[in-house]
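Record type: ASSEMBLY
Status: queued
Input:
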Amino acid sequence: MKKMLVAGLMLTGSLVANASSHREAPMIAEDQYVDNTDVYTFISPSDPNKLVIVADYVPLLLPSSGPNYYKFSDNARYEVYIDNNGDAKPDITYRWTFQSQTKNGATFLYNTGAVDSITSPNLNVTQTYRLEKIDEHSGARGVIMDGVPVAPWNVGKRTFANYEQVALQAVKSVNGTSAFAGPRDEPFFVDLHVFDLLGVGGSHTTDGLNIMSLVLEVPINEIASGGVRPASGMTGKTSVVGVWASASRPQLRVLRKGRDADDYGRYIQVSRLGWPLVNEVIIPLQDKDKYNRSQPKDDVGNFGAYILDPEVPKLLNAVLGANCAPTPAGGRTDIVGLLAPNGTTPADMLRINITMGQTADQSHFPNGRALADDVTDTLLTVACNNGSHIGDGVDGNDLPFSQTFPYLASPHSGNP
Amino acid sequence: MRTAAVLLVALAACRSHEAAPPAPKPAPLAHATQQDLARELATADRQGTWAQLRQRWQGQALRWTVTRYRTLCGAADSCFVAAFPIERPAKHGWMPKLDLSQAEMAKLDAKCPSAMCEITFEGTLAELAASPEQPTSLRFANVHIL
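Status: finished
Output:
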């Protein structure tokens, strides 16, 4: 009977697990563990035959946030999508699912002694993951790796004599694909005072914070259309791939007295991200949660008018007197064009040239997105459209990025 | 048992929220504009009358004047038009999709050879997605460019 009722509830379609960038929409702000904050993609600096994809989740994390340090959610799907033929639909999906373990439930401690290895018995709370690759055309689903450890939280100097040495033991490589999951230094740099009536003034508000990162490095021929990397100089739809990420939750959660909640139903997308700052500053409040539930292939039909006629320049003029150009009568088709390189369908995803000969040095937003790209300045300048450089005064990350996998900087220590 | 009762109540609540009224045939909306639809969408958002809104509008033959941007309406099977002029900024994100035959696409190109122009069309509002969960979207079938 209970199962029938639950099935009935799901069939009504009225109960939806709703909810995603950094706390950019009302509902995802209430579900932090699945809040997709940023996506990056660039040709690998260490192997130009591979593409690096970074999907960050769980925003603005204080390093000393014990005793239950941040992790990925065990009842969510974290996914990265590849569109390799320009139609704005996923052709390949990479899916991460997580499982937490506690060695000793009789203590409140995350670790019960010093930790010198990712397999240390002193690491009391751990998490592992499975990484799958799904061919969206055939439906074929393969497990790339399973039981892979998530890097532990950087608790502090008393726990880790050498944190990064332990964390890098979480890097796993199988048949040319490398993966890493775990805490990293928050790579996004911005003056968040922008949301106090655009009160930007160069405050490094994301310095010292951490993020949960999924990092993937894959051979380009494995994600290219037809399994073949396009030749140098090609300019068709298949010479670029589109990359975006999402998180999904089971549709129905039943809270229980005295035991953990039960989750039922199909997975509902609660967060998605392609370009930076789209849902923050392009999509208005009335549609932010709906944006998180929608698919890139539908972006023009659902949200196209917001791109053609954005709010940002008006705000910059009203609040900062920035003298931005008025939206032309013909709309901002230039921005639409940036979202649709090489004749691809306009959609909110990072598109990057994957033709032979491309290098990391050429992977800069909007051709992909490198970790060090100052996308806030780029997007404000594009939005203002008056020929002047507009910026938030924050031009770089607090820590240097690495030239080797997983590329992001080591997370800040909870007890430096 | 208690869980079952709670689920029943939840089910009833969900159903009553979106319950469709007995279906009188909706009056024709031949002269209804996109501004009318936008007003009714705002009402539905306040009052939860999404089902009534869909019933009233879906299947209606409409004549609308819209803006065609070549970058967003460049092929018969991929044509989205702007329902509203540039408002600085846009108040609605949706852009109606027009299902065009090749002949109508050719007519559109002939009438609108520039990057952007105003066009009037007649068509059937074949799909109207309007709900508290998903973004609003529209698709017109049997489209004739006037």
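Annotation: The beta strands of chain B are 61-69, 73-75, 78-79, 97-98, 116-129, 137-145.
Annotation: Chain B has one domain: 29-145.
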